[in-house]
Amino acid sequence: MRTSYPKLQLAITVIELLITLSIFMILLSIAIPNFSAGIVRNRLTSIANELVASLNYARSEAIRRGQHVAVRKTGANWENGWQIFVDIDRATNASKNVFNAGTDVQITEVSALPETYTLRGNNNFENFIRYQPDGTSNNIGSFAVCQNDSIQGAKLIIVNTSGRVRMAPDTDQDGIPEKDNGAEITGCTSGF
What's the rounded Cα separation, in Å, for the pair 81 and 19? Predict the structure, then answer.
């Protein structure tokens, strides 16, 4: 004799589907902002690393060549890009720290940053930074890299008296880097 068993239901109900979709949407709404913030952090770090690499490269070229090497912004602001060149023509104040195609030697040029990012030098590095043949820089100062002028998650690059470059720490882990005096930066466009 054969017994009959009820057939298993393999389909899902509309209520089960709605509950599953609701849970999925909640998880997605939590994940997307974190994912976007991660992308911004990674881009800020990448931009800061590119500037640090450019400054270190300019310093090493100044020492290697035994000549002045300048890093100068190519537009109105640093985020428009910068160029590294051997500053051979230093005969007049007007020709110092300015790329002169006839006499100076361009080493490399870095293109503009993505549109929503700013890169600004403080008053000491408003237009350029120059390395002497001994590797020291023309001044001490810093650069701030921000997204949409927000200091949250910003990066601060500091150049010391010997011309060495380093990233400023965020010792209190609030997403805002601290200057050498321990104070946090207050803006991204000037005086930070």
Answer: 50
Per the CB < 8 A criterion, the answer to whether 85 and 69 are in contact is: yes
The class that CATH gives domain 36-167 is alpha beta
CA distance 71 to 62: 11
> Is the full-model pTM beyond 0.85?
no
* Tens-digit pLDDT profile for residues 19-30: 999 998 888 888
**Per-residue model confidence as pLDDT tens digits over 28-41:** 888 777 777 788 88
Q: Where are the domains of the chain?
A: 36-167
Sign of the C-alpha dihedral computed for residues 115, 118, 123 and 127 taken in this order: negative
